[in-house]
Design brief:
- The complex is a heterodimer of chains A (about 475) and B (about 260).
- By secondary structure, chain A is α/β, with parallel strands linked by helices.
- Chain A is built from 13 helices and 19 strands.
- In chain A, a hairpin with a 2-residue loop joins strand 4 and strand 5.
- Chain A is globular and about 70 Å long.
- The termini of chain A are far apart.
- The model of chain A has no long low-confidence stretch (mean pLDDT about 90).
- By secondary structure, chain B is mainly α.
- Chain B has a domain of about 140 residues.
- Helix content of chain B is about 70%, strand content about 5%.
- Chain B contains 9 helices and 2 strands.
- A two-stranded antiparallel ribbon of chain B has the order 1-2.
- The chains are: A alpha/beta (about 475), B mainly alpha (about 260).
- At the A-B interface, strand 6, helix 2, helix 3, helix 4 and helix 8 of A face helix 7 and helix 8 of B.
Chain lengths: ~475, ~260
Amino acid sequence: MLSVEFRGFTWRHAGRRAPAVADIDLRIEAGERVLLLGPSGSGKSTLLAALAGLLTTDSGEQRGEVLLDGRDAAAQRGRVGTLFQDPETQLVMARSGDDVAFGLENQAVPREAIWPRVHEALEAVGFPYPPEHPTHALSGGEQQRLALAGVLARRPELILLDEPTANLDPEGAASVRAALGEALADAAATLIVVEHRVADILNLVDRVIALGPGGVLLADGPAEAVFAEHGDTLAAQGVWVPGIPLPTAPRPAPGEPRLRGESLALTHPGADRPALAGVDFELRSGELLAVTGPNGSGKSTLALLAGGLVAPTRGKATVRGERTALHRLPANRLATRVGSVFQDPEHQFVTATVRSELAFAPHAAKWPRDRIDARVSELLERLRLDHLAEANPHTLSGGEARRLSVAGALAAAPGALLLDEPTFGQDRRTWGELVDLTAGIRDEGAAIMAVTHDRDFVEALATREIALEDGRVRSETSRC
Amino acid sequence: MLTIVPICGPHAPIARANPVAKLFAVIAVSTAALAAADWLTPLLLLSALAAAMPFTGIRWRPLLRRLRWLWLAAGAVAAGNAFFAAEQTGTILLSLGPMELGSESLVNGVALGLRVCVAATAGVLGFATTDPTDLADALTQQLRTSPRFTIGSLAALRMLPLLAAEWRQIITARRARGMEGGRNPLRRARLLASTMFTLLVGAMRRAGRLAAAMDARGFDSEVPRTYARVQRMRRPDWFLLAAAVVVSAAAIATSAALGVFELLV
């Protein structure tokens, strides 16, 4: 096991003026299990990268020291194991067993010792398939457990977990947490975890360190003490502090029907069962219809069909005042009827500035100049993006990018808005912003459909909920 | 989904052969085909490849699906060379206004097309029976290629299906924004360029994360790597390689004996 020490550590990424972290002094004893908290941009990931020896001299400028057992961390990369956030970019090999073996080959473990260690690690994380199983056929949760096996097989003395469940659906996240609990319970290693969803990880740690903006040390101690004293501050910074209630908003009475789906069905070419097997729905102005269900139940497909983005195999989606089915409308007209917001905001950015991003759909719909200008100013102000009007969309922070993608979908004033996992992977502060924003749009009379795994989001905003299973509606509940 | 997995039964003799043996076998056959300028040598090689099919464990249908574009290209090479030969020689077979087709030009064109066909088919047979991981392992162990380059390429290859899926998502997201190619070529070009840009931004970020994850697992350390699987030439591998060389030489010898062989100069 390794002890960890930062001495006056400062790191500035190449090309940035402000340092990512400044003057960090911190000591973690061998065998301690630490939860590291802090708002976005407080430098948590930079600290982990420094410990993992991944900050190279050509990628930035360092002052101070990072020590593992009293010696420079950069020279001891082999003793540290890191589990990152994104399962897709952690797997290197096509076969699961090979992927675990990859880290052992790099460590120059003799061949006869490799396979027993691979099997042992796969077993420790509860990997349910044989080692030949192809990695591309794994779900996100399974991929992440395989990556964990890859970390554990190297027998690291310091384990770093960088938001290990943030990119997973609730089911996958639960399976990874279970695997972490099992596998780390008796691992002889020091542990540092970065995680916003605090409640899920508390049983793994015995010390909480909270950083404030700019990397200053805010609090340090046992979890109960830290949350009792600094809970509100941390919640305001985006940490999901356990026991602090989430806001709920009153729900208005729904108005006229806006968007209607009639027996919408889609079977992908070559698939043996339909992705969506005939779903009817009606969406009224001023209501938020939550679409829930497990992965593969057809939620996202429903959003694509309802938004006229993909042609259904059967059935159609229509809006009030438009006879043509949505999937047959030209894109510029479609954008004035329904707005769709995707999970990855960057996929939707089509221009080089925030301002032109908002003007794009109204311009495509041939609105007059002054109407476009008025609309853009209104949206910039309402979504608090006015100070960023000339910024490149690809440079925005996570929360800003999401607000912009919502604003872009609303720009041509569609009567209906479709959201796919709007709160996925967000910290508590961005979550709160998105809930307020969505409530405002709903209360002004838009009809909203939100595909989501997020129970808190449903509780806060939904007026109705339909749960899908195997491409069909399993149940419908009213929440007024 | 787009995948790069082999399309053969895993237990066929050629599927189990060493990747480097297969690589050199493919090179032998292709070299013979490309060195010959006559029509008989590539035809003999093509029948030899067909005769090898049962040993590859590949089913015909997926193979033909992979080969169709390459064969179409070979057909285009044949037609192009036949019609646009510098000089139409032999009996004139066809005359369409200024276009003429002579019998000798036709034979030459077909011969050129057949050569492309042999090289393409041999390559596809080799790759369709080889797991990319095994190929990378074999290249680094037997030919001493740099692991950083070879295994890095392998990891990049694994990302390709993800890029294909992301491309479709971006196109859909563009339609939602009111951006669509339609029939206007200018708009189509703009859509293509902006989709490429978004895909590139995503790919760069992904590549950075992948590189960090690989480094975190000790990929670029100074220690020489060990290998979980041994890749080396065994007796059947030598036999495969020898067979490929002998067959290639035999094809050339046969056409030379029949007085048809011409060396490409």
